[in-house]
Structure prediction request, 720 residues.
Amino acid sequence: MLAAAFLSVLAVMSWMPAAHAEDGHELWLRYRQIETVQANAYRADASQLIAGQGTPTQVAARDELLRGLGGLLGATLPASDSVTRDGAIVMGTAASSPLIARLGLDLDDVGAEGYLIRSVAIDGHRTTVIAAREDIGALYGAFHFLRLVQTGQSLAKLDVRESPRLKLRVLNHWDNLDGHVERGYAGASIWDWHKLPDYLDPRYTEYARANASLGINGSVLNNVNSNALSLTPMYLQKAAALAGVFRPYGIRVFLSARFSAPIEIGGLKTADPLDPEVRRWWRAKADEIYRIIPDFGGLLVKANSEGQPGPQDYGRTHAEGANLLADALAPHGGTVMWRAFVYSDEEPDDRAKQAYTEFVPLDGKFRDNVLVQVKNGAIDFQPREPFHPLFGAMPKTPLMMEFQITKEYLGFATHLVYLGPLYEETLRADTYARGKGSTVTKVIDGSLDGDVPGRSGLTGMAGVANIGADRNWSGSHFDQANWYAYGRLAWNPDLSSRAIAEEWVRMTFSNDERFVAPVVGMMMDSREAVVDYMTPLGLHHLMGRGHHYGPMPWDAGGPRADWTPVYYHRADKNGIGFDRSATGSNADAQYAPPLAEQFGDVERVPEQFLLWFHHVPWDHRMRSGRPLWDELVHRYTHGVDEVKKMRATWDGLSAYVDAGRHAQVSAFLAIQQDEAQWWRDASIAYWQSLNGLPLPQGQAPPAHTLGYYQSLSFPHAPGN
Ligand code: GCW
Prediction:
């Protein structure tokens, strides 16, 4: 029987057509049939499935294994109640599976979301057990097991024990109720608010599956620049419908709250956090939300930042504002994620300093169910920033990391930039807050200060989503890798970005080593390339005003100085860079002493942050021996050359990718090359207009005059 099935599979495979064009919709969960010899080997370790279907989550886990293994191995996995042959897979919890209960596995310390995957013998048969304490752990284990097959790993002698390091692993959607996505480059919002709650687009389930495959367990549905309407009954019903779709996949729904909602939708005269009416209003609102969405996750708030209302409008602090909402949510177990992305509307202090200045004095003043959500750097998701000085500076307050997955400042959807190395660089940065080894990861996972008396055990990571209605979800095939890397790092911040890239490439494209190695290489080099062609050596915030598309280092004027590039580069005929040392804004003093000293010393600062922390003359001697000006030009050119290399690499790989995806990536790389050249040339033309210096030997002049670059305008650039 088996042999016959095997032969028929071979027969099917022999006339399988060559790779069809794919549109990327299936993400990393493609489950395409793997090569025959390997599939046969796997079939010996995946010969039957014993798994419950008593709850929606159990059904999801079981369906995923059947779908995944069915696709990968090209054969339907028989489902059964008992282990009758070698290669059985038993999945579940002690409650859902008598077999797992019987094994008495030690599941005590895997937690509610963790799992074990073990090779064991059951009734004399080689068996793989995917066991968890809760159904959701088994679902996560199912995805892990599939990943092993998708990435070509052995299933013999498995001994995996996994649990997430962070409790909240959430996506922040900057999606407006009208379907526009702020900083979205993948089309409109996937939430069809108008048709919700009655019509549930199948995409919602696909979204939930994809996120669950990474362990993402929360979704903030609406933009932090929020509309109070999202808290009205009509929109809560719509959010509840999404919560219902996500629930089996372990994903809870959160909403961004507008601080002035009591006025706008509550008819009150004030939103003062200490006003008894306002407190009553929020408590009633929380009760109402939980009546509609019983497992609602909580509220995310952007307050007193970029014109958003907040507690400071009433002379109150961020802590008083956060605690207002925290008190309302606490009886229901909800969490407040209060953003630290703030900079004063009036005070012209160095913008890099303002979050620290406002938040450090509030350490210890937040309720237990508040997380302060801090962007990775102090300015704004630039291609490279030093880690935010708040990390390590608020030992009594759990801080949550906010990464940006959408590439607002990194070339939108058309530049191939893998963000894994950016995330990893931040997470591994040493804050020196409690001596050497006080990494940002230890700050956010609570291991650095978790034992500070009175501190809550909340931990979390947020990623600003790059998801939209485009068929490929993220606007480009390679941008899917950034969603993937974010999710994997939120589960385990110690994973290496290279290992994650490799996993993703294998699952998304091919296990062929001739493809995997060069593509992983491209991805790993891509982040440094974008730093070089856009903002080398610590330069930052030099992009077009408002839409943030393309270079505009000359831009000045307008409502606020700290929205303009000239504020950040401070270049003139003598030099360039923002002096954040003791002779300047002294922002470096916000870091722990050993780092503050290093950053503040122009001789010791890492060169990648030179112009972030120092204003130096154009002939400042670099470690390469070149003067700064030559080094800058060299870096710009190097960035462009890296893109040319990526193009050449990708062009040579068409044999390993379906034509559809290959062609789109090729076209986007061509756009990236043009735009990298544009960034280089426009930047060089502008700096030369200030410093009057000649180009170093062998460096090509900009293709156009400065006037040409300055004449370009993009009123309809996306995401604005
Ligand atoms: O990155 C900047 C963006 C704004 C965004 C803001 C924030 C949601 O340009 O579009 O607003 O940061 O993070 O609040």
